[in-house]
Amino acid sequence: MNDTIDYARYDRIRPIRWTGEALELLDQRKLPFTTEYVACTGSDEVAAAIHALVVRGAPAIGIAAAWGVVLAARDVDAADGIAAAALLAPAMQRLNAARPTAVNLAWALARMRTALEAAGDDWRERLASEAQAIADEDLAANRRMGELGASLIAPGSGVLTHCNTGSLATAGFGTALGVIRAGVAQGRVGRVYADETRPWNQGSRLTVWELQQDGIDATLIADAAASHLLRNGEVEWVVVGADRICANGDVANKIGTYQLAISARFHGKKFMVVAPSSTVDMATPSGDHIEIEERDPGELLGVGGNRTVAEGVQAWNPVFDVTPAALIDAIVTEQGIVEQPDEAKMRALFGAH
Ligand code: MRU
């Protein structure tokens, strides 16, 4: 670990708390002005919270779903893990269906099922320890990626990020935001810009607030200002997270990521994707095979709950897009960095995964 990073300063928010009785989720719909945890005591409540974006961000929804399985287990009476797995399958399917694009959700549930099937009459304890391990490993991965990603950034550089990839989206510290935090701590990142990230405003409501907790200055920009910023030379790197990374290096992430990658390449700027290996999906050959979540068009029709668009207007609200591998300079995971990703390099690092 790099002892120049003061994690107590740079990682103070926890979106997911397991009390032993309930799963407490920081309600991200209400940030930054209200800090309120929602207590879930059943797996369907967790699935509903994931769908409603009470908890969001690829790693965080995987962790929440894992604890959702622990909650579902309370309603099940089984002699061993195999029997419990069969009885828990419907609840796990409902958790898996909460959101389609981030593979971390299915990944975490598959891990829980594998742990269950290997367990005997201690299956309840095994489920709880697996959920805790998923969370602990995510935090460790984020710290490692912070060091690896920051090492690519020259001292004093400006960075632009999109959506929210910080403590709020993970077990802690963050993915792209972890690289930015490590980079600030090491003097590599000199200026931080954050996209607003319409329509849900993860950037303006969450990212700049998170950075403010750390005492990191960040400048908010409208999504539409990104190319203007990249052109005028204040930024060397665009640093983003991911919801699914395919076998050929294509990356699904928050809507608007693709146009940032195009603009970065056009303006000669570097583009970095930061994600734990739980986001890598070697079973999906390319971005063409990813289901892109489409949400209620109503999210586009107003601001802060106030309608701003004339009645009767139609809207389309895809909430992720796919950035082709050819536009990516580096994919940073806790297992290592893939530069100029392609299928051969992905297979060399992740195998069949
Ligand atoms: O719809 P969201 O807010 O869950 O989307 C989040 C993103 O797209 C993040 O960039 C991604 O999940 C990585 S979070 C570490």
Outline:
The chain is α/β, with parallel strands linked by helices. The chain is 38% helix and 17% strand.
Domain module count: 2
- Which regions contain 5 or more consecutive residues with pLDDT less than 50? none
The fraction of residues in strands falls at 15-25%
Order of helices and strands: HEEEHHHHHEHEHEHEEEHEEEEEEEH
Question: Characteristics of this structure?
Answer:
binds 5-S-methyl-1-O-phosphono-5-thio-D-ribulose; Rossmann fold; 16 strands; 11 helices; 353 residues; Four Helix Bundle (Hemerythrin (Met), subunit A); four-stranded mixed beta sheet; alpha/beta
Q: Overview of this structure, please?
A:
This protein has 353 residues and is an alpha/beta fold. It has two domains: 134 residues, Up-down Bundle (Four Helix Bundle (Hemerythrin (Met), subunit A)), CATH 1.20.120; 208 residues, 3-Layer(aba) Sandwich (Rossmann fold). It is built from eleven helices and 16 strands. A seven-stranded mixed beta sheet has the order 6-5-4-7-10-15-16, sandwiched between helices. Strands 11-8-9-14 form a four-stranded mixed beta sheet, covered by helices on one side. Strands 1-2-3 form a three-stranded antiparallel beta sheet, with helices on one face. A hairpin with a 2-residue loop joins strand 15 and strand 16. Helix 3 runs parallel beside helix 5. It is globular and about 65 Å long. The two termini are 25 Å apart. It binds 5-S-methyl-1-O-phosphono-5-thio-D-ribulose. 5-S-methyl-1-O-phosphono-5-thio-D-ribulose binds next to helix 3 and strand 9.
